[in-house]
Design goal:
The protein has 751 residues and is mainly alpha-helical. It has 41 helices and 7 strands. It has a 4-stranded parallel beta sheet, with helices on both faces. Helix 40 links the parallel strand 6 and strand 7. The longest helix is centred in the first third of the chain and has 20 residues. It is globular. The protein starts with 6 loop residues before the first helix and ends with a helix.
């Protein structure tokens, strides 16, 4: 054991066990020292051999065959106070008055050897007589035995909450539930989140994964959060959950009267405080909810209905329905009636409605006071700007007659313009371009990260109409460096959700923004499985929008670099799914087709390094892709990627069984069906791509022996239909949406 010590420890120990210490180092090495002395020394040498277990070392000073004193020091930097407390607890005051630390300038070669090795204070102590020293030796032996059994603890560094939250949003973007839940646990372990924050995170988790009914049907959660000043994103998630759960089916049926009735019974009367203010949120379901709320009023405001209708995209299938609800529904202007309605709305806490009605009326002292209160409670730049515009057009005598507290609040609202609309004095921006410019200008990164909580309120419609604006935004973020560039990479989920997830700005004019997001993910040094799925999603979106040959080849070069960095059997399914995406989508030129062929051949070549791990669910997709790319599939056998077919076949016989594949990627579903029919002769394989709960989907879910759910390409309505129809049985969840991922899911379920 002593011979196993590293040279550094062996050197200082040889110095320590030399005169005036009569316990000789060589006698310890060859075990010729007295057993009593070996018992005092060996436990501490064992801890020195295992660096993880090092806490302290206490060694004897021996003269005339007996121990006359001990030297002790802490092994870890900064460990002296802990050692001193231990010595006091184990030895004093029965044996020691206090363990004194030796002065650094004391001429003691024994202490000097120990101090040079560890750099901590050295303690020398002894008893009053030989009997006391014998008792101290027993206490030190017990202490050594205890430290030897002490569990090894490692102090893990806590990541910043902002970094964890960015990874959390990225996991939600690709619907990676287990990863998202693990990140919630990591955020909880930081100890920096209170109970309210954890509730907000729970809502965000369920909303991000599309578990809308779990939010909407948790009555007391929604009721509690409705009474709190929740962040805009949480408010958006809650209202969207209620709308999707209780109103979406009625909306698709196109029944306006039933939609109004259901809204009033399910949302307006149950959770009225949720509708106090839209907070400038642009999420379609939230805008629709507030339009319905205004439509349900005894005197709907034509102006409010028109403003809300303008926020809805005309490409929305339900736009004609809401256009009919808004058009011609408003009552004629009646100053007296509108003033009474504004006062009633203010008293009921419907601040958006009160604000709009007061703005439509001539100003007086009371209405200005109400408007200022509404603007502060709504807390958006839009409300501040509209209020100040109305005030500035009023007669100066009106302002002079305002009460001093009201004038002070107005002054605070005016001052907020200089710092982006914040009355608190902190950095706050109110749009994506302003946020990117603030990053470029080196403003407070923590504040700029926090403000993304309000990104749901930022308008992106202008980007969808103006390609130059999109390019300007992409250029601003693309030219960042250092911490600002890191902040931009962390914002990828927020940017994608704002521009593309809700269909609010996802036109071809936004291609520059989508390409930017792809580049930001590629630039990450370490790519997780979540990041790879995000890249696949962004690439698929770019192919759908349409890209030039030059852009196509550039993207594939980036994907080749990624494949080289992450190439392993663990990520083979991802690579195969990307190749399938390339095979299905048209290539814009001959050079582009050569690029995608090069990517596929690179994947095949890489697979040779782990050919011994390949199974039938891996080789069948490779064969299909060989046909797509014009490659002779016999070469797979030559390269050792295809083995004995009979030996590879699954042992389980599924003849007479039904396998159902649910995916919105119909081409991948068809390929998976063909592969499964080859793997399991006699099995019935069905593919379904219904986006809503249909009788056929329900029937298949009930009859299926194995139901594969490609959740990365799915409809949340279909998920709940399937879950209910399976009556306690769980569907098989495919990790990706390509053929390889679907096959792996089936085969893994059978083992």
């Amino acid at each position: 054991m002593i011979s196993d010590l590293d040279p550094v420890n062996a050197t200082w120990l040889r110095t320590f066990f030399s005169l005036p210490n009569e316990l000789d180092w060589d006698s310890l090495v060859d075990r010729t020292a007295p057993q009593a002395m070996l018992d005092q020394v060996l436990p501490w040498l064992r801890s020195l051999r295992d660096e993880r277990a090092q806490t302290a070392v206490i060694l004897p000073l021996v003269q005339n065959g007996t121990t006359i004193a001990w030297y002790a020091t802490a092994c870890k930097p900064g460990g002296s106070p802990e050692l001193e407390a231990d010595l006091t607890a184990w030895l004093g005051p029965s044996y020691l008055a206090y363990p004194p630390a030796m002065a650094d300038d004391v001429n003691d070669p024994t202490a000097a050897a120990m101090r040079r090795r560890f750099g901590n204070a050295v303690y020398r102590f002894s008893g009053t007589d030989q009997a006391a020293n014998a008792r101290i030796a027993k206490r030190i032996a017990a202490y050594a035995a205890l430290t030897g059994r002490r569990p090894i603890t490692t102090k893990s560094s806590l990541r910043p909450v902002g970094a964890i939250r960015a990874d959390f949003e990225r996991a939600l973007l690709v619907k990676d539930g287990p990863r998202a839940e693990a990140l919630v646990a990591e955020m909880r372990d930081t100890g920096r989140l209170n109970e309210e924050n954890l509730r907000y995170l729970d809502v965000r988790l369920k909303a991000g994964l599309g578990f809308w009914p779990q939010i909407a049907r948790d009555h007391w959660l929604v009721r509690t959060l409705a009474d709190l000043p929740v962040p805009p994103q949480t408010l958006s998630d809650i209202i969207e959950a209620l709308y999707r759960t209780y109103l979406e089916d009625i909306e698709q049926a196109g029944d306006a009267a039933s939609l109004l009735q259901a809204f009033e019974q399910r949302i307006a009367k149950v959770y009225p405080r949720l509708l106090a203010s839209r907070r400038s949120i642009k999420t379609p379901q939230v805008v629709k909810a507030f339009l319905l709320f205004e439509r349900c009023q005894p005197r709907p405001s034509a102006g409010v209905l028109a403003e809300l209708l303008e926020l809805l995209s005309q490409d929305d299938p339900a736009f004609p329905l809401f256009s009919g609800l808004a058009t011609g529904a408003g009552t004629p202007v009646n100053a007296e009636a509108d003033a009474a309605a504004a006062e009633e709305a203010f008293d009921d806490g419907n601040f958006d409605r009160a604000f709009a009605l007061f703005l439509s009326l001539p100003l007086d002292r009371r209405s200005v006071q109400r408007l200022v209160s509404c603007a502060l409670l709504i807390g958006t730049e839009e409300a501040r700007t509209r209020l100040l515009g109305k005030i500035d057009s009023a007669a100066p005598t009106l302002l002079q007659g305002l009460a001093e507290p009201v004038r002070e609040k107005l002054q605070a609202l005016r001052a907020a313009k200089g710092n982006g609309g914040s009355t608190s004095g902190h950095t706050r921006v109110t749009g994506w371009v302003a946020w990117a410019e603030a990053l470029r200008d080196g403003q407070d990164l923590h504040a700029l990260t926090s403000v993304l909580e309000e990104a749901a309120t930022w308008d992106v419609t202008a980007f969808g109409r103006d390609e130059a604006l999109s390019r300007h935004f992409a250029t601003l973020l693309g030219n960042l460096s250092g911490e600002a560039a890191l902040a931009a990479r962390r914002a990828v989920p927020a940017i994608y959700s704002a521009f593309f997830a809700q269909g609010q700005g996802g036109s071809g004019h936004n291609k520059a923004v989508l390409s930017l997001l792809f580049d930001l993910v590629v630039l990450d040094e370490a790519l997780s499985g979540t990041d790879l799925e995000l890249l696949s999603m962004l690439f698929g979106h770019l192919l759908a929008i349409g890209i030039s040959s030059k852009e196509y080849q550039s993207l594939l070069r980036d994907l080749e670099d990624v494949q080289e960095r992450v190439g392993s059997y663990a990520h083979l399914a991802w690579g195969l799914d990307v190749c399938e995406m390339l095979a299905i989508a048209p290539a814009p030129s001959v050079d582009a087709r050569e690029s995608r062929l090069r990517f596929f051949l690179g994947l095949v070549s890489q697979a040779k390094s782990f050919a011994h791990r390949l199974k039938l669910q891996d080789t069948l997709p490779l064969e299909f892709l060989c046909r797509d790319f014009g490659v002779d599939s016999d070469s797979l056998e030559t390269m050792g990627l295809v083995g004995d077919r009979e030996a590879e076949k699954p042992a389980q016989d599924l003849a007479g069984k039904m396998i159902v594949i649910y995916t919105l990627a119909e081409a991948a579903g068809t390929r998976a069906k063909q592969a499964l029919e080859r793997m399991f002769p006699g099995a019935s394989v069905q593919v379904n791509s219904d986006t809503v709960a249909t009788a056929r989907l329900t029937s298949l879910a009930k009859a299926a022996d194995i139901f594969v759910f490609a959740w990365r390409s799915s409809s949340h309505q279909a998920f709940y239909c399937i879950k209910e129809a399976m009556a306690g049985r769980a569907p098989v969840m495919a990790a990706g949406k390509g053929t390889a991922s679907i096959l792996r899911a089936v085969l893994n379920n059978l083992t």
